[in-house]
Structures are given as structure tokens and as C-alpha cells.
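Quick board copy: two proteins, each given as sequence then C-alpha cells.
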Amino acid sequence: MHNAKSRNASVSGLALYRRMAWASIVAQLRYPGTFFLQMTGNFVTTLLGFFGIWSLFQRFGSIGGWDLGAVAVLYGLVNVAFSVSETLGRGFEVFGGEYVRTGQFDRLLLRPRPTLLLLLGHELRLRPIGRFLQGAFVLGAGLWLAPHVSWSAVWLVPWAITGGAAMFLGVLIGQAALCFKTVEGLEVVNVLTYGGVEAGQYPLTMFSRWLRRFLTWGLPLAGVCYYPALAMLAHPDPLGMPLAFGMVSPAMGFVFLGLMIWVWRKGVASYVSSGS
């Protein structure tokens, strides 16, 4: 009986999320011209960032044993993964200003649905489609240009992208959980989101030892991007990690997400309304 109720609750929760997501999509497409311009601007802006990387390779040929095709794979993986989390996690980005400071989070607590689900349904943002398409294009070009692509390992692409999206979504949830203490969101957390995207576009060997350790075992950016890329490219790791590690390392993104969900629940349990 209890299991049946749990299944019914989960089904109704998913149905609610689909309704909220659809309403968000309809609202954004009400003005298709504006939506198209925003998406195009997002595409062009992120593409210009890749041209900066391209110019480095035009000048130096290769960097640390990595050619342009290999780095394009890194770039594509991290940008596609981040665009997915950007699409899903808007409610957590604005959580401090729109929910905690105004006291609107109290209303979410009164609803018989998980707060994480309600915030995921805050807005299914479509603008990051531009980053997604641009990142997917660069990723495909990188796999085509890289000289030693292991095509049997390309199945890692969706696995790495979902792991990366889970990791970035975990960062956004952790940022929102921090607002239970700070009320307003802290811009310093952008070091882990946009800064993480920038760091993920380059080989891990370019960074100092302490930063490599943090990007592997703290914020598992290397686990969802660098090591899967090595496995796809059949590129030996200069740091000595076996290539097989890249086939399981995207799971680190889901572990990080689970940890941030636990932090979120602790924050909700200690929440005290700030009023309006």
C-alpha cells in the first residue's frame, strides 16, 4: 500500500513538472522573434569564445601534446553539459533573491510536493539551446578532426554529458542551499559554474597540482569531461590515470549531485523565514 502511494506521488510529481515546463516553454515562445534573437546571441557569444581557443592553436600548433581537435572535444563536452544544467536549474540561480529574501519559499513549503521539483519547474529556460547547439557542433568537429578517436568509446558522449549536467546542476543546488545562510546569492559561486566551464575547456595538465586535485575530487569536473575525453581519443593520461577510468568517471557527477541534494535538505530543515 505504501509503495503504491509512493509511485502515485512520483507520477503526479512528474505530471506537475511536465505542466510547469510546458507553461514555461509556451511563455518563452509567445514572442518567437525575441526568443530567436536570444538563442542566436547565445550561440554567437559562446562561439566567439571558441575562436579564442582556435587562435591559440593557429599560433602554437599544439599545447601540451593536445591538438585543436582534442581540445574541441573537451570544449564541446563541458559546454553541452552546462547548457543542459542552465536549462533546468534557473529556479536555483534566482533562489536567494526571488524566494528567500521575499519569503516566497514559505509558500513552496506549504505545497505537497518536493521543493526541488517545484524549483526545477520554476522556468525551463530555452535560451541555452544556443550554447547547446554550438557546443554540439564543436564536439562533433573535434571527434572528426582528432587523429586517434576510439569510435567504440563514443558511447561515452551521452554518459559524460549527463554526468556533467548533473554536476553543474549540483553546483546550482548548492548555491541555492547557501542562500539559507546568506539570504542573497553569492557571486563567488560563479567561480564554480562559469569558471568551471572555462577550466573544463583545457587539459587538466595545464593546472597546478592543488587545482588538479580540486577539479578531480572536489568539483569533479575532470571526471565528467577530461577523463571521458581521454578515453574517447585514446589519449594516454600524462598524470598516469588508466584510460578505463574515463568510462566510469562521469558517475562522479551524480555522486556530487546527490551530495548537494543532501546539503539542500539540511538547509531546508534549518530554514527560518526572512519575511518580506
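And the next:
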Amino acid sequence: MHELISQLVRLYLPLDIPPQAGLAEHLEGQATRLFDLGRDGAVRAIVLPFDGRAHGSGTAAWERLCEVANVLQAELGLPAPAVSIDGATGYRLWLSFGQSVDVATAQRFVDLLCAAYCPEVVLPAGGVLAPVELPPCRNGTTGKWAAFVHPGMGASFADEPALEMTPPAAAQAAFLQGLERIDAAQLRHALDVLAGDGGQPEAQPAPGPGSRGLLLQDATLEDIVRHLHARNIEPTFRYLMPSR
């Protein structure tokens, strides 16, 4: 659990305050809480929701998430985001900033990205300042588990993006370890490209076998198992995947 909390703080929670109250209980499923991803007019992360109801089906939501995740990397030159299921009807993309970004800039990035690539995405009323149910946790509505997932696993949850049982904390931490944060230069470049201000998509090398890139359609269960075994983690999450 300690490593999972460490990764969540590294990527998503404000850096200048201790882990927010109730985080451990939230992650253990004792109580579901909402957490702020920023403070003082700036945010550490952005969450993009892909809801099966808005997209017509879980499969359609997953396919649109795949398109946007690959745009973020191949066309905008950003690091791979994390992927989660929400414990109810959809998926989430999680983008992390190396340093807090002011709300106006973060909201402009989200608005431009959605307008260009996913106009059907329904953002929360609070925009980038909206508090979130931080995975892994019990969904506040369904009681089932939201969790981070390997990018190659998402299609397995098209019928129901949720887990019935608690996901192992070690496996959750493993999905976050090694994820990079967006630095200021990368964000400026992405904004320039989205706004058409002369930025050009950076050519991205083809990912190698150990790449953190999101080959969302290609990973097999064996790939995922090898990834976790390489980190000395027994992939007990396999029995949590819904039957087809």
C-alpha cells in the first residue's frame, strides 16, 4: 500500500501537502472520498472521462479512449497517460504534470483537445478543478471497484468497466511506476499544435518491447503477465477479469 500511495502522490496529488486525509481508507474500500488534484488555482493532473453511455457502448468508449491516448503521444509529443476503469460505465485517462499548471492553461488544453478529438466527452461541471474518485476505490454509485488497468486490458472490460473484488495494491502501483509527467516544454508544444500556432507533431519512434507507450490494441494477457513478473508481482488480478 505504501508504494501505491507514493505513486499516487508522485503523479496526481498536490506536492506541497501531505497525502490527503482518508486516502488509505479510500484505497482499501472502507469509504469512498473525492480528492482534489490541485490547490491555489493550479492542478497537478487532468482526468478525461470516456463514458459508455455517452459513446453508445463500452466498446465505443474504449476505442475513442485509444484514439485520444495515441494522439496525445504520436501527435502532441506527450508521455503515456494512465488508464483506469471507473467501476460503473466507463474509462478514464490520467495525465500528470511535473509541476502544477494554472487552471486557465489546464482548462484551455482540455477544451482544445476535446474540441479537436473527442467533442462527445462530457467534462464535470467543475472542469479541471472537479474533485475525483482516485483509483483504486469503490465506485460511489455502484459499490464496485474502479482501478488502474494495463493499457492492453481495457477491451476486456467493455461490457462492464468494473471489478467485483479489491485489486491488488502491488499491481496497481506497478501500472503507475515509470509513468512520466508532462513537463512545461511538452505542454507548450501540445498547446501550440492544438491551437494551430505553428507547432508540428513530433515524429515518435516506434515503441520497442519495453516501451511505456500505449499500444492499446496490441497487448496480450501474456504480455501483461510478463510485465508484472518482471517486477516480481504475481498477477492475481487475472481472476478478476470478467468472463466473455
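Board note added afterward: The chain has a mean pLDDT of 83.
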